[in-house]
Design brief:
There is one protein chain. The chain is of the alpha/beta class. The model has no long low-confidence stretch (mean pLDDT 92). The radius of gyration is 20 Å and the shape is elongated.
Length: 261
């Protein structure tokens, strides 16, 4: 399949799943992609990118790796892009497919329960990578990790932080088999400052859920402990990405873990 046609097709989740490829847009995102170990299928650029020093360097870096670079019109690039301003460059790359390995030591997983906003999911992945989470796991109902908006908002974190999409049954079996304790954030949970000063499990998974719907019923039944973020009276909730950052930071300060996916 021609690169431009493939990039257009990859706007659809079913196509990404079938082709096992995704699209990365924008100069910074593609630069980060080229610096990663992911396999890049090819890059689409406009004539204007050749004239930009940073763009020319990007094209040179792609050539140095033997990655095909195809120059197209701005209209053609726009037809394959998810954003209104792809900055003259779009790359197609292979979706990594690592297995969720059995933990050999302490681990901390982040579990996304039906998070549907791509910007939030990308920000959550970036936060998880920054705060030492071993891997991020998406349950059904969560937006595709390789959606172009998720890729963009992750700011390159997806290219090096392990992510997995699992059914609840598969995740539950994994947690049980490897003695991973399941925690969740909830307004009625124990206050985070008190929890973070106590003894934390060496292996734990923290679930964050859709702000409106809350935890899925089957997930809620399996959670072993819930924590809450103390807030000023009158404030009902936090954005899920903000709340995730606060919780992960508190847990990291209390007990850092060695990453293991």
């Amino acid at each position: 399949m021609k690169l431009l046609t493939l990039a257009r097709d990859l706007q659809r989740r079913k196509a990404r799943e079938r082709q096992q490829r995704f699209v990365a847009e924008g100069i910074r995102t593609v630069e980060t992609l080229l610096a990663s170990e992911l396999t890049v299928t090819g890059i689409l650029v406009t004539e204007a990118l050749h004239l930009d020093p940073r763009g020319a360097a990007l094209i040179g870096a792609a050539g140095g790796r033997g990655i095909p670079v195809l120059t197209v019109t701005e209209q053609e690039l726009d037809s394959a892009a998810d954003t209104d301003t792809p900055q003259g460059v779009l790359a197609v790359a292979a979706i990594p497919n690592p297995r969720l390995a059995a933990p050999a030591g302490p681990v901390r997983y982040l579990v996304l329960d039906a998070l549907q906003d791509p910007g939030n999911v990308g920000t959550v992945v970036r936060t998880a990578a920054a705060l030492g989470v071993s891997a991020t796991i998406a349950l059904p109902g969560t937006v595709d990790f390789w959606n172009a908006k998720v890729v963009r908002s992750s700011m390159g974190a997806l290219f090096q932080h392990p992510v997995h999409a699992l059914s609840w049954e598969a995740l539950e079996a994994f947690l049980s088999a490897h003695a991973v304790e399941l925690w969740a954030t909830d307004m009625d949970g124990e206050a985070l400052p008190a929890v973070a000063t106590g003894r934390l499990p060496q292996r734990m998974a923290v679930v964050v859920s859709n702000e409106g719907a809350g935890l899925s019923p089957h997930v809620a039944r399996a959670v072993q402990r819930t924590v809450s973020i103390p807030m000023t009276p009158g404030v009902e909730s936090l954005n899920v990405a903000v709340a995730t950052g606060i919780v992960l930071y508190a847990l990291r300060v209390a007990s850092p873990v060695v990453q293991s996916s």
